[in-house]
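call fold(seq) -> tokens
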Amino acid sequence: MHAALVSLVALFGASQVLAFGTTVNPNGPFPNKSEDGQYGTNNCGTKDSKSAKCQTLIANSASDFCLWAPPSKATVGDDERVMVSYCTQTGHGSRLIPKGAITSSHFVQTPHYLQITGYGDFTKMNIISGDEGGELDPHGADGNGAIVIATVNGKKTQITEWTQFISYNQFCIRMCIPGPDAARYCEHIYDTLGCFWNLPGEYGSGFTSCKGKDVAMPNLKNGGTSTFYQGQKPTPSAQKAPASSSCTNISSLGGKASTSKAKKSTRNY
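ret:
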């Protein structure tokens, strides 16, 4: 199913997209295609290409991760069915995020999820300038065959609950660690409310990798006695991003292999 686009009332506002895909061995090999009608492939190999149709997203670390973006010049809403992976490092058989496309990036691992937030020039990744973007998640029925693999505490893990917002100049992605609370921390029903509301975190300058606490859920109203649904009034305020610690600075992202500096600090975002 391709859900209709909704009016943009916040930074982002496209419909929910991407299919659950097939359960796979997170260590590979992956199937060539995991869904009927899939645009690209999940068996991406290791050779990167500007025309790659890789639909496997990898998140190994703060300096080695991928984002979904269009395969050709388009708005996020128009190409949500055919998103492909763009990665910060070589070797994933994907498209390479151009150096300078990501201008800030902040990775945090909490007990329940991995999250990366920041800014950039994503016209370099085929998003049309000025496009306020949309949400991508695994709860559509398009048969897109999206597979997400993350390294969690040193172990490769298939992520079945995740959400990404991306526009021409901002991104955020959260990958929830499998467990009974995964769907709760990776909600997919607030697609018009954007990054700041859905994924509170650090969006400012710099490149960091941190440990953090789970964010409080923003979707309760009436003193926490009932669930807020998008479109109801008033909209609850976004939760404050929780404190993070043990931060390491990353020198750069995109273009080629990224490096990190062993400089640690405690940050309270």
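Confidence is low (pLDDT under 50) at residues 1-20, 257-269.
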